[in-house]
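comment on this one:
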Amino acid sequence: MLLGTVVFAQRTEAQGLTFSLFERYLESFRVEAGIPGMSAAVVQNGAVVWERGFGRRDVESGAPALPDTPYLIGGMSQTFGATLLLRKCVDQWGAQIDDPVIMRSPAFAEPQTTLRDLLSHVAPGGSGYQYALARFASLTPVIERCAQQPYRAALISEILDRFAMFDSSPDPIVATATPEDVGVIDAGHRARYADVVAKMAIPYRVTSGRPQRNVDTAPKRVDASDGIITTVRDLVRFDNALLSNALLAPATRNTAWTQALAGDTELPTGLGWFVQNYHDEPIVWQFGMTRGGHSSLIVKAPNRGLTFIALANSDGLNAPFSLESGDVTSSIFATLFLRLFLP
């Protein structure tokens, strides 16, 4: 018993040292990138083992960034869009991911393009990889047809409400009570979303190392590729729902997290996620970026039960690293996590 207690204490102490080092480096990288505010968490087998806010969500007021601070996540919204498509169309309606898009979206202009092609960012004509959020967004009407409701309503009922993501909003627009939203989202939800938008981290454009409040960021209606506002803690709930099979059948999820092909060419993507190996360990990840605004990153090591999530109120978390090329190790933030937790 004594030996077991000593071993446990040693492991706990070593883990504490790792997180302390991780935290110091993250803060150093944040300052170097000129990011005003950042929130981050590490999850192990569904439990948050570390979380922290760095800097300011609002520089002018001095309000700190916290783990429950909302941010725009940009292209990371693809993970939600892909999950909704796979859940509603594949798991519930029996669609095949190699079905042509026009089967469920007749207005789509490419007769040969499949659901898999768009989910994996295959270039038009199947000629290889091409990262294009606008093409991914073409899956929105497909999801709406399978769900038989507007995309934002499906997002709310199937994910945000179901998994208590109450510090999230489908987008910045639903809180403004447009006639379109009044018929889809009730007053209680709209009031909650207005509160989320009010607490959202202020977007900053960093010029010569100095943050300048960006008042030019136009609100965007949510679609399968973009638009969601959420927090690190709510993303942990989404991540746990995926891991617990509460959203997707295990085989469907595993397909989403498996490297896709275009012909015989390996792609850097699965279905709505990027997929690659790091020291023979499968890594699943996604990022998002609003130029001169917010940025987001999620990196998963499924075989280790590990997830790292980071959100920021400038584009500095991702802008320097060309993550759209499909290599997460180009990011100093992701590589820090991988080197410390997957040595």
